[in-house]
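Lab manual, section 2.4: Encoding a predicted structure.

Procedure: take the sequence of the chain (512 residues), apply the prediction step described in section 2.3, and record the output as structure tokens. A sample record is shown.
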Amino acid sequence: MTPTRPDVPRLARPLLAAALFIVSMLPTAAAAAMESALMHFLTSGDLRGTKVSISVMDVGERLLLAEIDDEREMIPASNMKLVTSAAALHTLGQDFSFSTKLKLLSVKEAPAGDGLPALVVHGDGDPAFGAPKVLEKAGYNVDQMLGWWIDAVEETGLNRFGQIIVDDRVFEHGEKQRVHPTWPKNQLHKWYCAQVMGINFFDNCFRVNASPTRTGQDARVTVYPYGPFVQTEMRLVTGRADQWDIITRPDSNRISFRGQLRNRQQQDVAMHDPSLVFGEVLKHELSKRGINVNEVVRPAGDQRLPDGKVLHKINTTLQAVLNRVNQDSMNLYAEALLKRSGHAITGAPGTFENGAAAVRGYLAKRISDPTLAASIKLVDGSGLSRENRVSARALVEVLRAQASSKSFRPFIASLARPGEKGSLYKRFTDEDELTGNIYAKTGTINHVSALSGYIVYPEAGTDDKARILAFSILVNGHGLGAARNVSAVSIREMQDELVKIMDKEVVGELVP
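Recorded output:
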């Protein structure tokens, strides 16, 4: 597709090196050159029917530099997280923080009427609550976090409670809302399919560490968090190969280990009902200090709870969550942003549906072309569903809108960068390969690969005045049919080369 481009002023924005300047070049010529170079590279390869959609825009000039089948609706995989996180910044505000509170209800306030006080865990949908990597970055660990809450309870001088009430009603918690109905049914035990709850804990996964012992004997397996709320079945023996499976049963936290193990291994397995699991963990840890709780319960949907007294709270910044969404591609975190946005707009418990409606509201406000905004079909927030659809052109427009918004800095800071922790860690690692700085989001599910983001050319090392390219490369269908021999690795290599071509074409506009 090569549509007519508008007649706009010629490109004239500062670039990376102060010693360079931009030559006079008609934008239409620059755009034609980039698109031609990208097309030449694509047609020189053997894609065998693989669908490729590319859009590149000079953000400052709002000039499209390349449009290659850019309006085709594609499965975006985790590139959908760009839309979700942009909408969350708009809806929640960049200064938003999640806050999970531990409250004390006196004997008179406790709803059970059993003559005992109660504890309430009031959830805010924080996906990073008790998350190992987020705590580690702040200099803490899970045991320390739990210790803060145990200390707070101990300081009340009370040692017996009737209930721990897990109030996770910020999100709807029915079975159809814990995981999206379109997620792969045979993968719901995987970490990337973790249930989405109003109270999340430890990334909503059990961490399984398995170690070999003697050949023919049971392997050694540990599970964290562990307590009476977990049941395990051991059929895993030490053998000469690593051929083992973890099997979970629906609607329970019963975990079976089967097969043979040769080397030490670690896996994360999705929990069932993480809200109640955290309540049980808290009860178990309190018992170690001699503080007894009779039961862990969830309040009825319309049950009003007294405000009580806040004993402690854990806050997580929106930036910390965005980083996990776009650098580490954590599905749970994206879905929590989606549902928390839905709750913020409606005041009702967050759901996949009202979260998607919140995103549609954001798109309608921020994308000037209503047809383009309406073309984005968002089913879930993470891109795990294969029913999501978006075009490269629409993604670039979302990126452009963010680049012109007040929340651009937290947004671009959340994206992955080459050579740093995150999904671009091993990509674009040669410093001589690119002149611009890459900030991008990857996306991968079966037969889908995506790479979208920015190439930034700051002036003399500053970000205040920069030329910014927004780009999106969406690829569908490799490994299928005529393209069955086109590998995911070759597609990633192709995407990297396309980005290098974009960069080279921009640098080619410069002369000493």
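Check your result against the sample. Residues 1-76+390-512 form a domain with the Beta-lactamase fold (CATH 3.40.710.10).
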